[in-house]
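Study both lines:
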Amino acid sequence: MADLEEYQMEEIDDDPILPDEVDPFEGSLRWNISISSLMLDDEGKHGMIPTYSYKSSSYKSSESCAQFPGHIKQEDIKIEDVVRQHVLCFLPAKSICRFKTVSKEWLKWIDSPFFSHKQTNHFKHVSGLFCQFPGESPSFISFNPVAYGVSSPTLRFLPESIDVRTSCNGLLGCQSRLGDNAYYICNPVTKEWRVVPKPTLYHGPETAIALAFEPDALKFGAHYELVCAVTLPDRAALLFEIYSSRTNSWRVCTAMCLELDDLPLNGDGFYIRGFVFWETQSGAVLGFNLKEEEYGILSLPPSSNPTGALTELWGELCYLLPHKEDDEWSIEVYGNMDMSLRRVIPLHSKVLGHLVYGQCRALAFVNDDTMIIALGTEVIAYHVRAHKMERVSDARTDGFVKYLPYVNSLAPVGPFMRDTALYP
């Protein structure tokens, strides 16, 4: 538990959401990337070395405009080369695929492993939700269908019917419905996939999993881990078994959770900055430190219920809980190690319209400003600072539906299988 205590939400003026009248960028540290930083270094390696300075948002000067260094001639650099080398990696995967038709050079660059590595590290914007109703095929809800999308949202390129169980930085963790219930790791954009070897322990239906994948700009290999919280059938205990793509094998951790009063787990978990978190049915959070391979228990608010959701906000663990009073909905944001109330975000009835009379379920907080909630018969994106609502999709009301935030990334799976009939 000592390791979990270090994992505390930083206090930001006692408020995880900045007030409307505050410009979060005013007087902040601005990053100014110069053309020289995009060139080759002394060893002939590509580098992007940012230079930075402190400037107020009201500062305006012609000197702040980007200029070519004196030792570089402008005619030596073509704008299409700069765009291809240093701009494309900031775009979502669907938009990037359109640029494959520009030229053979662009196609070769986009299909290269080095570009996939750059795009995975530079584009981390949550682009939509993978959702699945029990017994049905998965589907994808895009926040912007023009920019974000996948070619096979039902994941039919996999060799058998699956359930989507976990998502992390562009990769999905799935499990087959039949046979030995094998685990799969896949990228729905590239249709790359890998079947995970059979684990050592027996993973029953109550096993909860989480995919841990954190791209590293300094490490070219894309390695990830599938963390499984396994309940032993013959003992009142819970063990952690981890699959590593680095070794393509499983390992059983020595840590054993015996605090069964705080279990069982309420579905699959998710990964944040070296920790995996699962919500339990008893109103607590089971946290697991991947580096130290130790666990700890956190308490949720006493009023927690199935309409709430654990989520990530500014890289920290938070809990969103809908609350209704006098026909007005609000979302209570809890954080810190004691899961204390950090902020109440009102959902103005004049914005929600007739949806204010429906049931509200929190799904996730994405991109540090947008709450995704299921309200009535619709899934909506509520922009906190602007107090604006966008309809994202119809919501299923005939049972529990899993919604997983997804990043439209080219993240590689590693040694993979590919359906050549679908993705030549």
